[in-house]
Amino acid sequence: WDRKSGEIVKEMNKDSNNIENVLYNPNKLESAFFTLDGEKILASSEEYNNKVTLWDAGAGRKIYSCTSNNNMNAPAVISPDGKKILISRGENIGICDLNKGSLIKTLTAHKDRVLSAYFNQSGDRIVSLSVDGVINIWNAKSGKLLYALLNEKYIRASFFHNCGDYILATFETETRIWNSKNGNLIATIKI
Questions:
Q1: pLDDT tens-digit profile of 44-63?
Q2: Which among 32, 56, 68, 137 counts the fewest CB atoms within 10 Å?
Q3: Non-local CB neighbours of 47 within 8 Å, separated by 6+ positions
Q4: Long-range Cβ contacts of 34-38 (<8 Å, 24+ apart)
């Protein structure tokens, strides 16, 4: 569909040679995101060969597909500037070039599967969450681990606030908020 008018421009079906796994195999798709310009779609799947695929949204053509050597644990996400993607692979996080699919840097500090990884809004920091109970904050450019927020409880999710100044993490019975610049705990909200 045309993103401005909402008119259908092209229809794809399950027999098409185009984006067949994006719409017609939802049990195999982990995530799909438009790039900021709306020109491309980034799709990732843990269940379907650990693949990340970049599509031309207008033509419905595959630009590239790359397979992770390790199991992907979370959706691939696009950086705010639209130039990089994060791929959670086993205990590591890959920072890749969006247009080429090539690995730029690998972030290693978790001791168990990475469940999620996100850029903050300015794209200069990354938050990652692992089964090991640790939330790591990274410098997105250098790949340096800035600090780790250790937790004794099972973490369900962690995100940057839209302004990028806060990290929110949800647990079974509470939500915690940290200052993302220094790692200080600001508040604990009991559910």
A1: 766 545 677 888 888 878 88
A2: 56
A3: 27, 28, 29, 30
A4: 35/78, 35/82, 35/98, 36/78, 36/80, 36/82, 37/82, 38/3
Residue 27 has pLDDT above 70, yes or no: no
66-100 per-residue burial string, b: 16 or more CB within 10 A, e: under 16: bebeeebbbbbbbbeebebbbbbbbbbbbbbebee
- Closest C-alpha among 45, 63, 66 to residue 54: 63
Edge-first strand order for the sheet with 51-56 is: 31-34, 40-45, 51-56, 61-67
Q: Inform me whether the pLDDT recorded for 143 exceeds 90.
A: yes
